[in-house]
Amino acid sequence: MNFLSRRQVLGAAGAAAVSGLSTRVLSAAPAAVSVTPELIAAARKEGKLNFYTAMDLPVAEKLAKAFEAKYPGISVRVERAGSERVFQRIAQEMGSNIRNVDIVNTSDAAHVIFWKRNAWLAPFVPLDVAEHWQPQYKDPDGTWATARIYLSVIAYNTKLVTPDEAPKSFAQLLEPKWMSKLVKGHPGYSGTVMTATHQMARDLGWGFFERLATQKVMQVQSSVDPPKKIALGERAVMVDGGDYNVFIHKQQGAPVEVVYASEGSPTISSPNAIFAGAVNPNAARLFHCWMCSGEGQQFLVDMTGQYPPHGQVKAHPERKPLSEIKLMREDPVEVEAKADEIKARYVSIFKV
Amino acid sequence: MLLFAAVLCLLIVLPIGWLVVFAFTDRARNPTLANFYTLFTDPAFVDPLLTTLTIAISVSVICCAVAAPMGWIVARTDMPWRGAVRVLVMASFVTPPFLGAIAWELLAAPNSGLLNQLYRGATGAGPDVAPLNIYTMTGLIFVIACYTFPYVFVLVANALDRIPGDLEDASSMLGGSAWNTARRITIPLALPALVAGALVAFLQAMTLFGSPAILALPAGFHTMTTKIWSLFQYPPKPELGAAASLPLLVLTVVLLRAQAAVLGRRGYTVVGGKSGPPRPIRLRALRWPALALCLVMLCLPVFLPYGALINAAFSRVASQPLTAATFTLHNVYFVFFELSATKLAMKNTFLLGMMAATGCTALALVTAYLTSRAAVTGHRALAFLATAPIAIPGIVLGVGLFLAYTRGPVVLYGTLWILLIAYVTIELPAAYQQLQSAFRSLSPELEEASRILGASRLRTLRDVTAPLLGPSLVATWCFVFVAVVRELSAAVILFTSETKVLSVLIFDLKESGDLAAIAVLGLAMLILTSLVIIAANRVPGFGGGRVGLRNA
């Protein structure tokens, strides 16, 4: 009669493995698969796909529509919530034996480590991933592959702040002139902010957050929200949030601009993972193949300006190349180990 | 009867039982009081408790102060356009509190809020001047009060509707002035409704999740419900969550007993066998000021927020006023053609609304009949069971049901049934209170006359009581339907992607800040709900008009 705990979840996963509902974790990646007519036909037969993601909703829906246009007959249902909430929902569903999720694109790379350990993921390697992905962006056992790379950045509203006044580093955000002018996301909801908070706490120290909390920062949930808030003019500067969201707003004419902090900008890699008990496994595989193909990656680059892990696809010409930006190093293994601690500490500092 | 009582028991005792078990045990299910110790000493829990009490008391006072005079004006005077005012109050009730909170964010956010921009434009003040800041406790109290006052209004107006004219005629024939009559006859007769309304407002404000979830996070504080919600984020701490909800339950029981003590054993029967329709009070010169007052009051929950939502739905940027240049249908297109969850959410919401409204009204009718006519032994226990769920925050009931129905023998998680059970359980107290109020004002002499003439209890219920209750039944059905459509706190725990409802969809969209999509969905929700209510009021046999009682 216990509520869902990690032990229960692992126990359930073990039982599920025994009953044959999940595949075994292989010690080597399966053979790379290209898109074949058989795969397309099998996916069409399934006819639908449940895609859980944390990416910006209009982006996710357009992505889904582009996939539906390429492969008619497969309708995609997008479930969008912050990565941490997606993680909670999947855990709840798994614990109750509800097999709803087919494929996930999460902004918290630590989640795939957890899911893989519980044998919830089905290994599958698209040909593009095998040939064009760098090793740090894919799982050696083939259970996940990074689909998009972006940064958590400082950004400001150009109508409220001139480029000279704009902060150039995280340290400058602690100055009194930014009191009540800042907005940021919350690591309890957003995978992007969770990952960014870990990197910033490691590189800048928790003292940074403690002093930031005295700045009367407006707290929102998802990392796609601070860019919206500064575009609305509600706050002048965002402390964290997706750089691709700022880019999209800027393309649409909003008065916003990105700042790459001098201490470094946290890096976010967002993996795709197919679930073992998926109801529509072939549709999931086809979607994963498409999203990792040159075409899918180009679509993401053109629409959102994110950095493609695909070696042959170039980043958007209007975006600064990753090599020219000072970056903070990503460490999903440590995030996975320390996530609860980080969230608890954040909540005790910011009081919400 | 026994089966009925058993069903009620199962509905209510099961989740409460789990809650008590979790509150008094630790992870390993050993009994302990540690959860309560944490609750009352850790400031992370004490602060939300005090905040919640402050909010609930303030909201209750404000609602009574606003709704009682409005109810009196609409029900007992000859102010013009009374019917329209009633409809607009219903529009205020139809609005989910979280949608109202989002709309008020659009209006009163300190920098981008439309009203603040208007003020700055009109007075030429600098960019940092903001007379209204919705991200404060005052802002939250205001928004909650806006969308809770219809409860009090409906109860008071209905009670005043039912007071027959001859009591007041007798008073004026004996020389009482209009004010004296009002003070010594009308108000005491309306008192049970007002007290019930104050209580409902207090409890609604105490257990509300949607508005605090929207406004409290940016404002930087927690209420009890948002705290409980945060305890169920991964990794969940259900023991603390259960312990946090027990004080709310105890408080409600105390208040309900207090209500019974205050009202005592005085009789409030007004519909007997020999009464006529009440005489409206002529306001003369005060008619137009009264109307102006009502309309100004209605600006706050209805006109301004819906204006803000229309602005956000049809402009490219929500913080910019709508002009010919900024007008766009892109958002409407996005919601209805690109957003893949819309169709399913709408279908689920209306299906559940209809089923829950019908089931809940039927259950409440039988329960109210049994308790107000004292027809079975143990009817007091039945009354307690019917009103007990009002104290459990929707979110905690959601968790209780989750615990009860996600493991065998009956697994309902992932189906619409678990949501249906949650909705019926949550709305039963309000439906029961309404029907009980209606029963209380029906004198037994009509039914006794029917029994004396040989009709059975069931026949009496069907031929005498039910027709007299017709308007109340329709009102209760509509009430439950609307309450289900706007319910968020239990749904947010119990839904899965197949059983998503509109309120959860809007809540998800708020997390990502998609204000335009929220505005479109909110307006669509309002339009469709209004259509259903209008249709319900046209069902032959019930109708919306007053039951005409003819003199013998």
Features:
heterodimer, A: 352 residues, alpha/beta, D-Maltodextrin-Binding Protein, domain 2, 2 domains, six-stranded mixed beta sheet, five-stranded mixed beta sheet, 13 helices, 11 strands, 14% strand, B: 552 residues, mainly alpha, MetI-like fold, 23 helices, 72% helix, globular, disordered C terminus
SSE layout and pairings?
The complex is a heterodimer of chains A (352) and B (552).
Chain A: H1 6-18, H2 37-46, E1 48-53, H3 57-70, E2 75-80, H4 83-95, E3 103-105, H5 110-117, H6 127-132, E4 144-151, E5 154-157, E6 182-184, H7 191-204, H8 206-212, E7 218-219, H9 225-232, E8 237-238, H10 243-251, E9 256-259, E10 265-274, H11 281-292, H12 294-304, E11 327-328, H13 332-350
Parallel strand pairs in A: 1-2, 1-3, 6-7, 6-8, 10-11
Antiparallel strand pairs in A: 3-10, 4-10, 5-8, 5-9
Chain B: H1 2-23, H2 34-41, H3 43-76, H4 82-94, H5 97-108, H6 114-123, H7 137-162, H8 165-173, H9 178-207, H10 210-219, H11 224-231, H12 238-263, H13 287-314, H14 330-338, H15 342-372, H16 379-387, H17 394-405, H18 416-440, H19 444-452, H20 457-486, H21 491-494, H22 502-511, H23 515-537
Helix pairs in contact in B: 1-12, 1-17, 2-3, 2-12, 3-7, 3-9, 4-7, 4-13, 5-7, 5-10, 5-13, 7-9, 7-10, 8-9, 9-12, 11-12, 13-23, 14-23, 15-16, 15-18, 15-20, 18-20, 19-20, 20-23, 22-23
